[in-house]
Structures are given as C-alpha cells and as structure tokens.
Amino acid sequence: MPEVGFRPLRRSDFERLRSWLNQPHVYEWWGTESGPDGLGGPGPHAATAAQVAEEYGPAADGVDPTSRFVILVDGVPAGLIQWYRLCDSPEYGAAIGEPTGAGVDLLLGDPGRVGRGIGPLVIDRFLVEVVFAQPGVRRCVAGPDVRNVRSIRAFTKAGFEGVRDALVSGEPAPEHVMVRIASEPALGP
Ligand SMILES: CC(C)(COP(=O)(O)OP(=O)(O)OC[C@H]1O[C@@H](n2cnc3c(N)ncnc32)[C@H](O)[C@@H]1OP(=O)(O)O)[C@@H](O)C(=O)NCCC(=O)NCCS
Predict the structure, then answer these.
(1) Architecture of domain 4-181
(2) pLDDT interval class at 170 (50, 70, 90)
(3) Which residue's CA is the closest to the ligand 1 atom numbered 27?
(4) 59: Cβ below 6 Å to ligand 1?
C-alpha cells in the first residue's frame, strides 16, 4: 500500500483544490453548507477561485473551526480531509443525533486514485494520527449520503459502524451516520 501523510491546507493549494472540487466523482457527493449555488451540495457545478477562497480561506488562515488537510499519497497531494468538533455545529449535531465528538469528511481528487483502497487507509491513519490525538476526542462520526455506497464501504473498512440514518435540513437524502470509537488502528501497517 502507498505511504499516506497529511499537511495543513495552504492558500497555494487552492487551484489544485478547485480542480478536485470540479471532478464529477467529487461534486456528486461533496457538499458544504453553502449549498448548490456555492461550492457544495451534490450536483454539477463549477467551483470558482473566489468560491474556493471564501470557503477554504479561513482554514488556510487558521481561523476556521474545521481543520483541513491535504492528503499526501507517496508524497503527492491527492485530496482533502477535514475534521471538526460537533459541539461547534450544534444544529447539525442534533440533526444527526451526535452532539459531541468529532466529524470527518474527505475526498480523493484524482479519479485515477478512487476505488483502489486508498480511502480506508487515509481515514484510518487520519483518525489515529490527527483526530484521536486531540485532547478529549474519543468518538468520530462520518455522515455519507445513504446513496454513497463507495464512501459507506470505505468508512466501514476503516472501522466505522453505521448507527442510524438522519435527514439533515437542506440535504436531498438522509445521511448514513457512522461512528468509530478511539482504538488501535483498524488496518495494519
Ligand atoms: C469516498 C472515498 C474517500 C473512498 O475511498 P476509495 O479509496 O475510493 O475507497 P475504496 O477503493 O476502498 O472503495 C470502497 C469500496 O467501494 C467499492 N466501490 C468502488 N467504486 C464503487 C462504485 N463506483 N460504486 C459502488 N461501490 C464502489 C469498492 O469495491 C470498495 O469495496 P470493497 O473493498 O469491499 O470491494 C473516495 O471514493 C472519494 O473521495 N470519493 C469522492 C468524494 C466522496 O464521496 N467523499 C465522501 C464524502 S462522505
């Protein structure tokens, strides 16, 4: 398996990030609170440089409660992964029945990297090295769209278990809420 690493998102990553967000396999599933007219919400759109700067600038500047990282696969930028504390998003936490702990999302930007088992490895390493390394974080949640079979399977392979489906206001379909409790790595070295 490839070597996986992470580094904080920088403004110099924005053009690469924009191209990832405009890949059909990503925008089919990658949403944000800004909805279909902004960067997120499933469905075709073209993220502009201004939209990327608005959405991701605060994280690059260190003032976003969501911590965003570039995924490195064998040292090459391959996608975005992010985590946040659910207590910072109380409405969302209530909607999915998970008021505490952390939430995690990711995308592999290059379509050639998808479907090769990299995602579960990335998720597992990120939880062990970043999310569960935070003081007080012992529970991590993911909420893929119930129709995103590939993502649900990837989180399952990374040690998550589905606990419920929850419809979040403004979303077109329920999320399949999945949880992993802090533990040893789910996948071997
Ligand atoms: C979700 C994502 C991170 C998963 O990583 P990945 O490396 O592609 O995952 P895997 O290669 O381990 O594939 C996961 C499972 O889905 C299956 N799968 C792959 N492509 C599939 C497809 N098009 N439809 C259905 N299942 C698919 C694989 O067979 C695999 O299951 P298996 O190992 O039991 O055979 C990655 O696909 C991605 O970035 N997708 C776009 C953005 C996204 O959906 N993000 C998730 C938001 S919650």
Answers:
(1) 3-Layer(aba) Sandwich (3.40)
(2) confident
(3) 150
(4) no
